[in-house]
Backbone:
């Protein structure tokens, strides 16, 4: 098996070949927009759209740990790969227009994951195993993000 590790910014130009299922996978990041295409489906995450969705769903956030739901949506719906700490930094740097009732300081996502193992499961499997408030926040964020 071949392995490659990058310690810095990396740009891929051209298709990437996924040896597991013989599908072409393309991931591109430009100007704060991340898109993923797997098996023909393309989804883009715009930082402005994410900020608006978070602002518009603040009434469903119960604590800072609510951002773990946002993390899981980005992980599963956009195939966004980033560390929990990098995600927290990204969330705090989004272009918000409104004051938020909860923030996402360093350690928020890791603490939420250790307190509630549901976050290890895919968001589309939460319906019958997650609390009502987690499912409600997930559903409202997905609605705002048009997922």
Residues:
């Amino acid at each position: 098996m071949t392995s490659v590790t990058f310690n810095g910014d990396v740009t891929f130009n051209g298709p990437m070949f996924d040896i597991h299922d013989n599908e072409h996978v393309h991931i591109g990041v430009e100007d704060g927009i991340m898109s993923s295409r797997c098996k023909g489906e393309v989804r883009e995450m715009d930082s402005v759209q994410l900020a608006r969705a978070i602002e518009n769903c603040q009434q469903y956030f119960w604590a800072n740990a609510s951002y773990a739901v946002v993390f899981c949506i980005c992980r599963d719906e956009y195939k966004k790969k980033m560390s929990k700490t990098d995600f927290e930094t990204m969330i705090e740097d989004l272009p918000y227009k409104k004051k938020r009732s909860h923030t996402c300081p360093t350690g928020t996502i890791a603490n939420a994951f250790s307190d509630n193992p549901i976050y290890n499961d895919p968001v589309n499997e939460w319906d019958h195993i997650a609390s009502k408030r987690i499912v409600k926040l997930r559903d409202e964020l997905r609605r705002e993000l048009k997922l």
